[in-house]
Amino acid sequence: MAISTHGDVGRGLDGLAQIAGKISTAIESVIEGKPRAVRLALTVLLAEGHLLIEDVPGVGKTMLAKALARSVDCTVRRVQFTPDLLPSDITGVSAYNQDRREFEFKPGPVFANILVGDEINRASPKTQSALLECMEERQVTVDGTTYHLERPFMVVATQNPVEMEGTYPLPEAQRDRFTARISMGYPDPAAELEMLDVHGQSSPLDRLVPVAAAADVRILIELVHRVHVAPAVRQYAIDVVTATRNHPALRLGASPRATLHLVRAARAKAALDERDYVVPDDLQELAVPVLAHRLLPTAEAQVERRLPEQVVAEIVDRLPVPDRRR
Length: 326
Known about the structure:
Layout: H1 9-28, H2 35-46, E1 51-54, H3 61-71, E2 72-73, E3 76-80, H4 88-91, E4 92-97, E5 102-107, E6 114-118, H5 125-128, H6 132-137, E7 139-142, E8 145-148, E9 154-159, H7 172-176, E10 180-182, H8 189-198, E11 212-213, H9 214-225, H10 231-246, E12 250-252, H11 256-272, H12 280-291, E13 296-297, H13 299-303, H14 308-318
Parallel strand pairs: 1-9, 1-10, 2-11, 3-6, 6-9
Antiparallel strand pairs: 4-5, 7-8, 12-13
Helix pairs in contact: 1-2, 1-3, 2-11, 9-11, 10-11, 10-12, 11-12, 12-14
């Protein structure tokens, strides 16, 4: 379906909802019983962000990442993060060409529209940091030369909880570049029973065909940029983020980048709901997945087992909500 960023935004959002619905349906044909996780993954894609999927092994983290990647007809690369992985294995390397007698750049897997990073926290912090520039600036610098990445560019990374053996905690700067973090959770019994039928003989990924093109996603992203955010709603986003910096249970609050990501994700959610404006409910619903993974609790909070997710939920419940969108 062809849509345009010109003319009435509402008509464009109709087309956005249709294409997004096709992508969502395609992913849910592979991932049973996880509509919220699928919806959030799609929200991050349209917000031009990056997604971190954290949970125990075997609950479908990599399956969700691969299903999202295969639903869009674009370039996709997958990297299995291991302790011996080097930064150049991700970004690429300059190699000497004997025939031409000069160095030439051999691009790494990061040069793709969607990069699936499997078990990202099994690589060393040095290798994890190879993603910092490309995730923030959509470019890679190797040997003093900068190479720009094609839009859309999205990193979908999976990780096991840090308590698992052989994992390295993600640096604060790395976590801050992920727009949102989600947990898959165990499926309910009905979904698990259906999974046995669907996945019993072959993987549904083998039957998944793209339902949208990279050009479609670029247009959808431009439409999301045009979603209106009223001054009062922007101030509400700032109030939520500022409250994390002053909370006694946190020793590290959310950054200004977190505020940008929260508003961008709220724009994408509004667009998926076929609204050309953001309401406070959008920010409230996205506050935990967008902010919690960036926060560090104090030692006292850790002893009391107060999770950052609980702190963000408390902040959202306590702050007054603006009445109007304009």
